[in-house]
Design goal:
Layout (H helix, E strand, L loop, with lengths): L1 H16 L2 H62 L1 H4 L1 H8 L5 H16 L4 E8 L4 E6 L5 E5 L7 H8 L4 E5 L16 E10 L6 E10 L1 H10 L6 E6 L4 E4 L22 E4 L2 E9 L5 E8 H52 L13 H40 L5 H16 L2 H18 L5 E3 H19 L3 E7 L7 E3 L2 H13 L7 E10 L2 E8 L6 H13 L10 H14 L3 E8 L3 E9 L2 H10 L1
Parallel strand pairs: 13-15
Antiparallel strand pairs: 1-2, 1-6, 2-3, 4-5, 5-6, 7-8, 7-11, 9-10, 10-11, 12-14, 15-16, 16-18, 17-18
């Protein structure tokens, strides 16, 4: 009986392992286990290095941001201390060999105003060299103090500032104790800046402005750096003079040589029997050196627990996934992955590549129907695109073709009449204007520069004045800043022609017409106003209604030119353009085109201007 069961078990196992899917699962599973074992060993030894590298890289970025901000802060301080040089009244007091009570009060009030203009000042003073007087305003006393001092020019800080290219120098407030404690306040003094004020002509020193800044800016920056108690941070100048230490043990930290060209530095250092990652950064001007020590033990302790848990989850999930889905992946995903990949390509716009119709019956049917669907979509897109493009082109051509030739016939008649009455010079100008307009009218451009359209209108009005003489008065304003902006061809002409046809041809009084083309807050404004008979209210209401309805093509009716112009603007610009009409019959009629320009159009106009 036992032998029977053993034979049956062996037979069952043989049958099971004869399946190719089971064989693949066993091979893949064994391979994955071996790979995972090797990966765990490699990962264990490389994790520390990866953590160190990431810590160094992230802190390099943080220190660079700090240096940039601190460098900007120092530059702003230097500019602030130069304000005394810009005030002619204060400068005349400084240059005076004698200083009286009024001058002292003036300087004291000026120092007080400078102090309260910033939030980070501890005190501020001015040392006047010609009369050996110092005027100071301090946060402690909250009042102005006056004292006399001598031999300022022998002080180290004066010599350093006077020899500097910008006549300034920076010094720590307390070079012996520079580290903050737990209760270190933002109001405590941090650094001093000295600015030598010189005579612009003789280059001789006149005074020294001294300002002491508190710790508020450093505390704000350190908060942004995300400092922790295990990290050590030092700010020093290029000579190694410390300005800020967050721990007293950093006083004996060596200065690692750096330059703006070579940022090589030790990856790790031993300091006070502890291992640290050393991250340093030198400011762009080469003056400020930041050093940060990151505890290796802290980094390891923070990451080793999560690393082990991740590895355990990875191994467990991998084993379960291989056992549960390997067989289904083998049977089902090959064809489905091909279909998914092809769908992604179709989603990106590739509708030409078809799917190979292989695999099981269901997969072949799915691939066949997918190919048919993609082909139909591609054909439909092409068909709709061609139809839409043809329709738009036809509408534009239809709109631009509705130019009334009446003006051309009248112009030719006037020129013929003038041949009998006037001399050759006036006829020459008229013929030149007409020839230029004919060339412009037959030009196939859809969009033209404003300058060409305005010139076309000028020629048109020249010919009209020959016909109507004193009955027509015009004024055109179009600056160079709008000359290169592209607008629809005959856009301005349509407004002018509408004003003429309803103002001159229907009335015998003089017509005053004004054309303005200008830029206003990123928009092109084209306005035409006249003092003609105007538009009756009911007619104006119908035109505005037609504008709102947005009919794409108008072939008859009143003010057909304005209706077609509105349609052309909508085709070219969409909601970025509008045509507005205002009319007070017998007093004033105004037509305004507004085109909101894109950033590119505005930039082109500014560059041209």
């Amino acid at each position: 009986m036992k032998l029977f069961h053993a034979k049956k078990l062996r037979s069952g196992l043989k049958t099971l392992f004869s399946h190719i899917s089971v064989q693949i699962i066993m091979i893949v599973g064994t391979t994955v286990v071996l790979v995972l074992l090797c990966t765990v060993m490699f990962f264990y030894h490389s994790t520390v290095k990866i953590i160190r590298t990431n810590a160094v890289r992230s802190n390099e970025i943080i220190l660079e941001q700090f240096n940039n901000g601190f460098e900007t802060y120092i530059a702003e301080l230097k500019n602030f201390t130069l304000n005394v040089r810009m005030d002619s009244g204060i400068l005349s007091i400084i240059e005076s060999p004698d200083i009286g009570y009024i001058e002292q009060e003036t300087l004291g009030n000026y120092m007080k105003a400078m102090f309260y203009s910033r939030h980070d000042l501890y005190d501020i003073s001015v040392h006047m060299l010609r009369n050996d007087t110092m005027i100071r305003f301090s946060r402690d006393t909250k009042k102005v103090s006056v004292s006399h001092e001598t031999n300022i020019e022998q002080e180290d800080w004066f010599l350093a500032a006077a020899s500097s290219p910008d006549y300034s120098c920076i010094a720590p407030y307390r070079p012996d104790v520079c580290y903050p404690e737990e209760s270190f306040a933002s109001s405590a003094p941090f650094l001093r800046i000295y600015r030598v004020i010189i005579n612009a002509y003789t280059k001789k020193p006149l005074a020294v402005v001294e300002a002491t800044c508190d710790m508020s800016i450093m505390n704000s920056i350190i908060k942004d750096l995300g400092q922790d108690k295990s990290s050590l941070f030092r700010l020093s100048d290029q000579d190694g003079t410390p300005y800020f230490l967050n721990s007293p043990q950093l006083t004996d930290l060596p200065v690692f040589p750096l330059s703006t060209e070579d940022t090589a530095k030790p990856e790790s250092v031993m300091f006070h029997n502890d291992e640290y990652l050393c991250v340093t950064h030198l400011s762009r001007d080469g003056h400020w050196l930041l050093t940060k020590l990151i505890s290796v033990d802290t980094l390891t302790a923070q990451n080793i627990s999560s690393r082990n848990i991740s590895l355990l989850v990875l191994i467990t999930a991998t084993v379960i996934s291989i056992t549960a889905i390997a067989f289904l992946v083998h049977l089902l995903t090959r064809s489905l992955k091909r279909l998914s990949s092809q769908m992604d390509q179709a989603g990106k716009g590739d509708l030409k590549t078809t799917l190979e119709e292989t695999g099981s019956y269901e997969t072949r049917m799915l691939a066949h129907r997918y190919n048919a669907m993609i082909q139909q979509i591609d054909e439909l897109i092409q068909k709709n695109y061609v139809m839409a493009l043809g329709e738009k082109t036809a509408k534009l051509q239809a709109l631009e073709s509705q130019v009334n030739p009446h003006f051309l016939y009248n112009s030719l008649q006037v020129i013929s009449s003038r041949t009998i009455v006037t001399g050759d010079r006036e006829i020459y100008k008229m013929i030149e204007a007409l020839a230029a307009n004919l060339r412009y009218a037959f030009k196939e451009s859809v969009l033209v520069p404003v300058s060409l359209e305005v010139q076309y209108v000028r020629n048109y009005l020249l010919l009209l004045k020959a016909r109507f003489e004193d009955r027509l008065s015009t004024d055109i304003e179009a600056g160079d800043d709008v000359s290169r902006i592209m607008i629809p061809k005959l856009a301005i002409f349509t407004l002018i022609e509408n004003s003429v046809s309803h103002g001159l041809e229907t009335s015998m009084k003089q017509l005053r017409m004004e054309l303005k083309v200008q830029l206003d807050q990123g928009s092109l404004i084209i306005s035409v106003t006249d003092n003609g008979p105007g538009i009756p209210p009911d007619t104006l209401e119908r035109i505005i209604t037609d504008f709102s309805a947005g009919d794409m093509l108008v072939s008859n009716g009143e003010h057909i030119g304005l209706r077609n112009l509105n349609t052309r603007l909508k085709i070219y610009y969409g909601d970025r353009a509008s045509l507005r009409l205002r009319s007070s019959p017998g007093i004033r009629t105004e037509a305004v085109i507004t085109i909101h320009l894109t950033d590119e159009e505005t930039t082109d106009a500014c560059i041209t201007h």
